[in-house]
């Protein structure tokens, strides 16, 4: 019946993934991991955040001691912003990422993305939204009308490392 169907049916969600500057060269492998996990990439863009934009993206952490270091890191190179869609996409992507600290990830979840491609607790390869609400805000940040981040288009690319 309808009740049972609704209970068994998982929710289709959208989440905002981001491949951080430290893992940019491994973007292909990370994109591959998304696709292999039955998640769908709906939008993807490459850009570079200014310090102000990185500060805005992580504003929720502005009082934390690691904030200045995080903002410097997040504006240090190109990133890939990705809209992922799928069943339980938020939790599924966070699970693929593994623990926040890449060193912890290597101890506890050696197959996770942060274990394989990250370095420490700041440079941890990739981001994933933690709720429906943050997913909406973050997707709007990268893909909304007031989209943020310098364009890194092919014809006039000052970021591309493959010159
Ligand atoms: P996430 O949701 O797993 O990415 O973790 P948080 O939302 O708590 O933190 C955002 C980002 O800040 C993390 O992905 C790390 O890059 C960085 N970060 C979080 N906690 C720490 C910390 O204790 N020390 C340092 N240096 N960086 C941190
Ligand atoms: Mg977070």
Automatic annotation (TrEMBL):
Belongs to the NDK family. The active site is at 127 (pros-phosphohistidine intermediate). It is found in: Cell projection, Cilium; Cytoplasm, Cytoskeleton. It comes from Chloropicon roscoffensis. ATP binds at residues 20, 66, 94, 100, 114, 124. It comes from the Eukaryota. This is Nucleoside diphosphate kinase 7.
């Amino acid at each position: 019946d309808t009740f049972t169907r609704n209970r068994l049916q998982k929710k289709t969600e959208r989440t905002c993934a981001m491949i951080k500057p430290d893992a940019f060269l491994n973007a292909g492998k990370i994109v591959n991991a998304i696709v292999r996990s039955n998640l769908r990439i709906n939008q993807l863009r490459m850009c570079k955040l200014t310090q102000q934009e990185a500060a805005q993206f992580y504003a929720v952490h502005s009082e934390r001691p690691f904030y200045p270091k995080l903002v410097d890191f997040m504006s240090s190179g190109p990133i890939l912003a990705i809209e992922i869609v799928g069943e339980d996409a938020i939790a599924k992507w966070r699970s693929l990422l593994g623990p926040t600290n890449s060193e912890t990830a290597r101890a506890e979840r050696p197959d996770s993305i942060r274990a394989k491609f990250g370095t420490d607790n700041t440079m941890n390869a990739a981001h994933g939204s933690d709720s429906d609400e943050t997913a909406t805000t973050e997707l709007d940040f990268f893909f909304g009308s007031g989209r943020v981040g310098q364009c890194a288009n092919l014809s006039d690319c000052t970021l591309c490392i493959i010159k």
